[in-house]
Amino acid sequence: MSFRPKFVSFDCYGTMIDFDMAGAARDHYSARLSPAQMDEFVRHFAAYRLDEVLGDWKPYSEVIHNSVERTCKRMGIAFDPEVPAEIYGRVPTWGPHADVPAGLEKVAKEIPLVALTNAMNAQIPHNIARLGAPITHVLTAQDAGAYKPHLRAFEYMFDTLGCAPEDFVHVSSSFRYDHMSAYDAGIKNKVWVNRGHEPANPYYGYVEVSDISGLARALGL
């Protein structure tokens, strides 16, 4: 990639932060479910989280609450509202994937980094502090009034930074949350971090890296 952007924007949870919702769900439900049922629970929980953020903006604690409740209903198990509250409480404690701090540091020396994150203002500073590299701008779903994959989240980034889509390289491990919307929003330069969350989708146009350690090379730095 020979393009030199004004900013490199990142998805945070899943791409940079080890967003262990699956592990949190397993801690609470694996004793009640068979391994196959637990895998099904994790899939439904992820699907309902996406479905919840597609509606009108709500606090992320409600996203988790509703997603756990809907998953329990689908699986036919009792719902305890203390479970999603405990899971939400874990989010600020999660740190980066092992490849992230050094990989970000290489890029941050050359290009300002932006976190465009599906986060609440109160939780994200704890995660950002664990990244081990300077993030110039942290833009949250709470301030945007919309979660990704809403285009409004990307438009908020453009407006806040006073830049156009062509001024960015956007980095994410998710097509459903980020790269499909980034494509529709006009961001032509994208990097897909293949963390195994989703299959490749070449239609949306990107450079693929296996982890953040390959990002500087992908950017031609």
Notes on the structure:
The protein is an alpha/beta fold and 221 residues long. It folds into 2 domains: 136 residues, 3-Layer(aba) Sandwich (Rossmann fold), CATH 3.40.50; 72 residues. It is built from 10 helices and 6 strands. A 6-stranded parallel sheet has the order 3-2-1-4-5-6, sandwiched between helices. Strand 2, helix 6 and strand 3 form a beta-alpha-beta unit. Helix 2 packs across helix 3. The longest helix is centred in the first third of the chain and has 19 residues.
Low-confidence stretches: none
Count of distinct strands: 6
Count of DSSP-assigned helices: 10
Rg, rounded, reads 17 Å
**CA-to-CA gap between the ends?**
9 Å
Major sheet strand order:
3-2-1-4-5-6
Provide tags for this entry.
Rossmann fold; 44% helix; alpha/beta; 221 residues; 6-stranded parallel sheet; 6 strands
Write the layout of secondary structure elements.
Layout: E1 7-10, H1 21-29, H2 35-53, H3 60-75, H4 82-90, H5 100-108, E2 113-117, H6 124-129, E3 137-140, H7 141-144, H8 151-161, E4 168-172, H9 175-185, E5 189-193, E6 207-209, H10 215-218
Parallel strand pairs: 1-2, 1-4, 2-3, 4-5, 5-6
Helix pairs in contact: 1-2, 2-3, 3-4
In short:
This protein is an alpha/beta fold and 221 residues long.
